[in-house]
Amino acid sequence: xxxxxxxxxxxxxxxxxxxxxxxxxxxxxxxxxxxxxxxxxxxxxxxxxxxxxxxxxxxxxxxxxxxxxxxxxxxxxxxxxxxxxxxxxxxxxxxxxxxxxxxxxxxxxxxxxxxxxxxxxxxxxxxxxxxxxxxxxxxxxxxxxxxxxxxxxxxxxxxxxxxxxxxxxxxxxxxxxxxxxxxxxxxxxxxxxxxxxxxxxxxxxxxxxxxxxxxxxxxxxxxxxxxxxxxxxxxxxxxxxxxxxxxxxxxxxxxxxxxxxxxxxxxxxxxxxxxxxxxxxxxxxxxxxxxxxxxxxxxxxxxxxxxxxxxxxxxxxxxxxxxxxxxxxxxxxxxxxxxxxxxxxxxxxxxxxxxxxxxxxxxxxxxxxxxxxxxxxxxxxxxxxxxxxxxxxxxxxxxxxxxxxxxxxxxxxxxxxxxxxxxxxxxxxxxxxxxxxxxxxxxxxxxxxxxxxxxxxxxxxxxxxxxxxxxxxxxxxxxxxxxxxxxxxxxxxxxxxxxxxxxxxxxxxxxxxxxxxxxxxxxxxxxxxxxxxxxxxxxxxxxxxxxxxxxxxxxxxxxxxxxxxxxxxxxxxxxxxxxxxxxxxxxxxxxxxxxxxxx
Length: 599
Fold this sequence. Notes:
The chain is of the alpha/beta class. 61% of the residues lie in helices and 11% in strands. The strands form three sheets. The protein has a six-stranded mixed beta sheet with strand order 6-7-8-3-9-10, sandwiched between helices. Strands 2-1-4-5 form a four-stranded antiparallel beta sheet, covered by helices on one side. Strands 11-12 form a two-stranded antiparallel ribbon. α11 (262-275) packs antiparallel against α12 and α20 (478-492) packs parallel to α21 (508-522). The longest helix is centred in the first third of the chain and has 49 residues, at 61-109. The chain crosses the membrane at residues 26-51, 63-84, 165-186, 251-273, 279-296. It is a multi-pass membrane protein. Residues 28-310 form the ABC transmembrane type-1 domain.
């Protein structure tokens, strides 16, 4: 595994370190680019020799053919080395970026969920997708091209200096101003880089949210312009790049003009030397046509340099994720007992706004234990602390008498099955969605699906268990998705089960099937349930009331009715709601009726 303690290393060296053995292909690509760049001087040398010979009337057909073949060989060699460099850089780049992507995903799997939750969804998407793609563009194309464009002007200058050092130095007169302008451009990009990151992360997040909420947008007849967050993100992105264009455009135009100013000095200086016999006609013509234009080869370097700034920024963004401390490897084995205890537990997602404070309760091994409370009271937070998605801010969470922080994290996750309210399905087949995280056979998957009351539905799909969720999943009902998640949990066969609003998506047709599936799932396990449906809660061995950022009461249904005002109130409300009947009342003559609730 690559060490993450590399914060002081230059981003480019860090990227090459991430590339592993693939960096040697990249080194060879750079070498090929250098050779290709050096070969650019050969045609200029040949043309100069032809001009000299022609001026002194010494040019023959054989010499012209020889120099022509030399130019052809140089051009062919230049393109050959460039092609070889690009081939090597592409192969090295794709393999290197595979390593970087895999490294990012593997690292995110072992860092605390809380650390990733603080990152903007759009920001993480930008790093994994867009920033990594920019690294591919840089490694596969820009790296050999930078060597090519840097080597060419240097080689031409050295050759010009060998012909006439004074005129060669005069060709460099625009260079200081061009370098200063290029520095100003780079500095301008660097100053706006953080703002670019924020705008792009906001745009990505708004885009994801907009696509996810498309049904709501259509239901309320909203358009792109009406969806303020998305429209605002687009406007912010456009405004930023408009500002950058206004700021950088004049500098870039001045840079291009300055590079072409060499002729203003070379032509009179060369003419003066030619008139006074200090330079031949061939030298004069060479410097007029070559010495005044070869600095234009530096222009692509500027364009690559602006992309290079974004590449360095992408490396920095990836490094920020890789710098998140992972959960420590190893630890104690998962205990044989599955009792769960909270001792004086306090927690805040952002470290400031307390969600839980001094929470204490004990769940016996094999017990069905439910949490009730208002939305946002902290019920789901408790289940996430049990699974160690987050670490507590104070106190202890114990399973089988062992602090979860001391348990091996992989063993902990292996022995806890969770069915969430919002069921997540990947774009793979239904089979792979149920088999997720296991190596179960098709027969074992089918057995789990039958227990989850979903087998018949899966068999009715166009390709059965091989039906791709990506193309068909949007037509799954909430209850069907829920039973697929229950089948997944049954197959995992973990001794500790967490049900977080697992029946929230149940409709009347699916509710009985889901209840039967849950009964099969809960058998012989310690079960932690978060639910608003009190008919489910009532069947649990004990219930905890979560209010005022803590657990205020624990007991059976009958005990809580006697000691908890909140539980007694919600039970009365639930009982009244169950007794409401709806009927039709005639409002006047004819067939017009209105629906009226009768308690």
